[in-house]
Amino acid sequence: MAAQIIDGKAIAARVREEVAREVAQLTERTGYKPGLATVLVGEDPASAVYVAGKQRACGEVGMTPFDVRLPGDASFEDVARALTELNQDPAVSGVLLQLPLPAHLDGQALTAIIDPAKDVDGLTAINAGKLCLGEEGLRPCTPAGVMELLASVDAQLQGAEAVVVGRSNLFGKPMAQLLLAANATVTVCHSRTRDLASVCARAEVLICAVGRPRLITREFIKPAAIVIDVGMNRLAEGLVGDVDFQAANEIASAVTPVPGGVGPMTIAFLLRNTLQAARWQGKDYQ
Ligand code: NAP
C-alpha cells in the first residue's frame, strides 16, 4: 500500500489560520498588534525570497512586519546596532536575523545579541538551553513544525526509535531534543556516522536534514516507518529533498513530499512563535 503523503501545505495553512484568529483576539482585547522584524544583510537572492515570504505571511495574519535591510558590506557594529534597536522597540515582538550572513560577519555572535524574549528562531543560547533543560521557551521553527507534522499522522513517539540525520544547531540538534522530550529513543547521525543505512533502517521515525539529493534510498527505510524529509536541494529538475520519494512512498507508512511537506511549516511556526513571544512579553494583558 502506498504511504500516506503528509500535506504540509494544508497543515501549515491551518496553523496560520489559528494564529490569525488568536492575533485578532489579542488585538481586539488590548489594541496591541504583534510585530515581526526581519533583518536581511546583503542581496543574496534566495534569502531575499525567504524574507519576502516571511514579511507577506506576517501581514496576512494581522501582525506588523518590520523589514530591516543592510548593505552586504555592513559591519558587525552596524548589524549589532540594528538588532539592539529592535530589541528595544516595544512594537517589535520578534526579531529574526536572516542567515546565512555575508562571510565577514559572525552569525552566531550576532544571533547572540537578539533578546531571547524576541528570539523567534529559537537560536540563542538561552532558548537552546531552555529546550535542553525542558523549560518553556521559543523553539526553532522547522523542528517545531516537524513535531506538528508527526502529530498530524498520530505518530506514537513514546519509546519509538527515532533517527535524525543532520546535527545542525538550526535543525538536527533541536529536533533531537524535541523528540527526546516526547520520550522517543533518539539517535543523531552526521557526516562521520558509520553505516548510515543500517542506523536509519532501525528508525520508526526517520528525519533527514542534510542537503544531499536522494541520500536516503530504499535500504535506509524500515517498513511502515514515518519519513520526514527536511532537505531542500535545487536541481535543474526543480526542488528535491534528501529522500528518494518513490522508495519512501512504497515502503513507509507516511512521508512528506518536497516541496509541500516541511517547508511551509517553518513560516507557520515563525508566526506562532511571534504570537507566543508577544504573549510572554505581557502584551496580552496590557
Ligand atoms: P547544515 O548545517 O549544512 O547541516 C547538515 C548536516 O548534515 C550536518 O550535521 C552534517 O554533518 C550532515 N551531513 C552531511 N553529509 C552527510 C552525510 N553524507 N551523511 C550523514 N550526514 C551528513 O544544514 P541544515 O541547516 O541543518 O539544513 C539541512 C537541509 O535541510 C538543507 O537542505 C536545508 O536547505 C534544509 N532545511 C530546510 C528547512 C525548511 O524550512 N524546509 C529548514 C532548515 C533546513 P556534520 O555535522 O558532521 O558536518
Explained architecture:
The chain is an alpha/beta fold and 286 residues long. It has two domains: 31-115, Rossmann fold (3-Layer(aba) Sandwich), CATH 3.40.50; 141-264, Rossmann fold (3-Layer(aba) Sandwich). Helix content is 41%, strand content 16%. The protein is built from ten helices and eleven strands. It has helices at 8-30, 45-60, 76-88, 107-111, 125-133, 141-152, 172-181, 196-200, 245-251, 263-280; strands at 4-5, 35-41, 64-70, 94-97, 161-165, 185-189, 205-208, 226-229, 233-235, 238-240, 254-255. The strands form three sheets. The chain has a six-stranded parallel sheet, sandwiched between helices. Helix 1 runs parallel beside helix 10. The mean pLDDT is 97. Bound molecules: NADP nicotinamide-adenine-dinucleotide phosphate. The site of NADP nicotinamide-adenine-dinucleotide phosphate has 25 residues, from helix 10.
Question: Helix and strand layout, with pairings?
Answer:
Blueprint: E1 4-5, H1 8-30, E2 35-41, H2 45-60, E3 64-70, H3 76-88, E4 94-97, H4 107-111, H5 125-133, H6 141-152, E5 161-165, H7 172-181, E6 185-189, H8 196-200, E7 205-208, E8 226-229, E9 233-235, E10 238-240, H9 245-251, E11 254-255, H10 263-280
Parallel strand pairs: 1-11, 2-3, 2-4, 5-6, 5-7, 7-8, 8-11
Antiparallel strand pairs: 9-10
